[in-house]
Amino acid sequence: MTSTLLEARQIHCERDDRPLFSGLDFRVGSGELWRIAGPNGVGKTTLLRILAGLNPAFEGELLWQGEPVHRVRTQYQANLLFLGHNAGVSSSLTAYENLAGWQAMRTPAVPEQVMAALADAGLSGYEDLPAAQLSAGQQRRVALARLYLSSAPLWILDEAFTAVDREAVAQLEALLANRVRAGGAVILTTHHRLALEGVQVLTLGEGYDAV
Amino acid sequence: MWQWFHKLGSPKWFFGIAGRLMPWLGWSALIVLTAGVVWGLLFAPADYQQGDSYRIIFIHVPSAYLGQSLYVAMAVAGVVGLVWRMKMADTFIASATAVGAAMTFLALLTGAVWGKPTWGTWWVWDARLTSMLLLLFLYLGVMALRGAMEDPDVRARASAILVIVGVVNIPIIKYSVEWWNTLHQPATIKVTEAPSMPASMWVPLLICLLGFHLLVAWLILWRMRNDILLRERRARWVRDWVLAQ
Amino acid sequence: MRSEPRVPVRLQEQEGGWPRAAVETVRREWLIAFRNRQDLMNPLVFFVLIVSLFPLGVSPEPEFLRQAGPGIVWVAALLSILLSLNLLFRNDYADGHLEQWVLSPQPLALLALARVAAVWVTTVLPLVLLVPVLAVMLHLSPGTGLVLVLTLLVGTPVLVLVGAIGAALTVSLRGSGVLLVLIMTPFYVPVLIFGTGAVTAAVEGASITGHLALLGAMLSLAVVLAPLAIAGALRISVSNG
Predict the structure, then answer these.
(1) Does residue A209 share a domain with residue A120?
(2) A54 touches chain B (CB under 8 A)
(3) How many domains does chain B have?
(4) Could you say which of A38, B8, B137, C77 would form a disulfide bridge with A204 (CB–CB 3.0 to 4.6 Å)?
């Protein structure tokens, strides 16, 4: 029995005077794993950013638990985890400081949890290195470590598997599956072929009319 | 009333109405302005203090007034655009900016022309001219910001915010510049005339004011129609209209 | 990577505490400033350089410097602030932290106010503390120097608050900081006028309470309104991604 978390109604979006998508209806409930698919440039990232509330350049409605997002913005953002193209990791701060800072914005920081999350993301031993000295893949892991600290019911992940090496891909897939089984909801895009069951797919570019 | 307001947001409707209004505005602007300017420049009596050089106020006062009120109108449009998400609001801002800047520049120019015979210099840092100069900078700032942004939606919202913050500042700027001016020039002849003007002077002034309003309205509607055609160029009604020309 | 989630799914009914988020915002700003402390020198050096140009370029006569000094210091401070503001949000925008910050579960305007306050302490307060030294170089009397510091203490927060609006609007744009200077200068003029006006009044022996009160009023207005504009501008710039 899933409850609807995020609902998008009749979303119409343009870019460079071309309609990207029109009349898009989309509903995500707890326990659902969604993948937004489509060719490059079709607007997957744009749609994700609209759903995350970062991009207001659309027509239509976006509802969080039945309420328009612009009216319950802080509540929506308290229940949302968004990972974009950029890791959001500051190069002057260490991996630990980056993650602890992110957590401290949401709940009182608990150092043991932060260390454990970094270890979960495969960064044991790298916690105190300035992020500038980490590789791109490691910086991405700092961002992914947030998944282990987040109680948010909705995760929106853009290019979830970017810069994740092959062994970790299977584990990340399992994490997402377990999360969804535990009642969370995930919307993601990826170029990687998901080896998961029960993934619902929303394909852009065909089946959504350009006006 | 709300219905009319929402109609205003439709580019096609606005284009049609503006198209019908423009000839009226254009011709009446021409007639009224000619009448006002000719009356003021040629027939109104000379000022006993400043002689004939004061006549420039028939151009200076309307352009200064419009330079200011256009900025305020742009700020109102900015609020409308942000709150009601109307693209037409940004069309107005895009069209009015250049006209407002031109009016402000004209006010500065005519202020200088007035200053030369009165004080012997082309420029003087008095309160009104300095405020006008800062207003021109505000306009230039909006133009520069818009020029640096390509995405039309981001550009619309960003310039709306800049114009709204600017309008809040205008009274602050005016007050502080006036205060600054009294500090540095205790005995100043103000660029604006004292209100005790005889009817033979303020009647042509009012006519010029009206004429300038009509002219500015015509200019802005013209620019707005062009902007609409550009924005909506993929729509069928635009194609039909262009083909019918 | 671990494949079991650690933290259970929990629906938050209310937003996270904003005092803690504000404190964390300040803490992070100061930590990064400390890590890059050599960069903090730049606005200071620029400030002193600009001030030094005037004796060199105009006249080193004590009479001239005494009269022009307060204005020179104010203009130099204004330009230094604009220079540092240009970088205010840029790093965060580039590495993606800005969009995470904008997605924080607290009112963004409050966080913006905290951030600006933190930036004022790290970037502007050192400038103001340097003013007594500059006052000596410009042959200003100690009393004048003190009033100058006072007006800067009240006026520069206004400059930072209003300038942050421009910084937020232009953060996603390429190009030099000239655009920011062009946009912000008209807004800075009232602060400049009353700041220098106060010092002039002090030199003439008149009371400065009126000027300080006006500067204080501008500060109150800026504290209340600017954060809202900064938050709106940040959201706009982040959507440009």
Answers:
(1) no
(2) no
(3) 1
(4) A38
Choice among A139-148, B123-132, B135-144, B158-167 with the minimum mean pLDDT: B123-132
Q: Which residues of B touch C165 (CB under 8 A)?
A: 161, 165
Is residue A138 located within the same domain as residue A187? no
Give the total residue count for chain A: 211
Give just the sign of the alpha carbon dihedral A181, A183, A184, A187: positive
The predicted structure's pLDDT at residue A188: 93
Closest CA to A80 of A187, A8, A196, A203: A187
pLDDT along chain C (241 residues), means of 10: 85 80 94 92 94 92 92 95 92 92 93 97 95 94 93 96 96 87 94 93 87 94 96 92 58
C175 to chain B: which residues are within 8 Å by CB?
A: 148
- Spatial contact of A57 and A13, defined as CB atoms under 8 Å apart: yes
Q: Is residue B90 part of a domain?
A: yes
Q: What is the CATH number of the domain that holds A28?
A: 3.40.50.300
A102 shares its domain with A195: no
Q: 3-state DSSP helix/strand/coil percent for chain C, to nearest 5? A: 80, 0, 20
C124 in helix, strand or coil?
A: helix
Number of domains in chain A: 2
Q: Which amino acid is at A121?
A: A
Q: Rounded to the nearest 5 degrees, what angle is found at the Cα of C170, between the Cα atoms of C169 and C174?
A: 155
Residues 6+ apart with CB under 8 A from A190: A35, A159, A160, A161, A162
Q: Chain C contacts of A77, Cβ < 8 Å? A: 15, 103-105
Q: Where are the domains of chain C?
A: 18-24+36-238
CA–CA separation, B104 and B109 (whole Å): 9
- The residues that bridge with A63 in the sheet, in sequence order, are A7, A68
Please give the residue range of the domain that contains residue B89: 69-244
Do A53 and A125 lie in one domain? The reply is: no
In this complex, is the C-beta atom of C237 within 8 Å of any C-beta atom belonging to chain B? Answer: yes
- A82 and C35 within 8 Å at the Cβ level: the answer is no
B70 close to B100: Cβ distance less than 8 angstroms: yes
Is residue A179 within 8 Å of residue A202, measured between CB atoms? no
The DSSP string of chain B is: -HHHHHHHT-HHHHHHHHHHHHHHHHHHHHHHHHHHHHIIIIISPPBTTTBTGGGGHHHHHHHHHHHHHHHHHHHHHHHHHHHH--HHHHHHHHHHHHHHHHHHHHHHHHHHHHHHHHHSSS----HHHHHHHHHHHHHHHHHHHHHH---HHHHHHHHHHHHHHHHHHHHHHHHHHHHHHHHH-SS---SSPPS---HHHHHHHHHHHHHHHHHHHHHHHHHHHHHHHHHTTTSHHHHHHHHH-
Chain C hits for A178, CB-CB cut-off 8 Å, are 3-5
Bridging pattern class, strands A199-203 and A33-37: parallel
Domain that holds residue A205: 1-79+152-211
Q: Which of B153, B231, B233 is opposite residue A57, by nearest beta carbon?
A: B153
Residue A81: strand pairing partners:
A155
Residue A84 lies in a domain: no
Which structure tokens are listed for A185? Answer: 């909801």
Say if residues C5 and A145 touch (Cβ distance below 8 Å): no
How confident is residue B70, by pLDDT bands cut at 50, 70 and 90?
Answer: very high
pLDDT digits (tens, 9 = 90+) for B111-143: 888 878 777 888 888 888 899 999 999 999 999
- What is the distance, to the nearest Å, from the Cα of residue C135 to the centroid of all Cα atoms in its chain? 21
Name which of C162, C218, C240 is nearest B154 (Cβ-Cβ): C240
Q: pTM for this one?
A: 0.91
The SS3 of residue A82 is strand
ipTM, interface predicted TM-score of the complex: 0.89
Question: Beta strand A59-64 with A67-68: parallel, antiparallel or unpaired?
Answer: antiparallel
Question: In the beta sheet, which residues pair with residue A186?
Answer: A33, A155
| Residues A147, A157 within the same domain | no
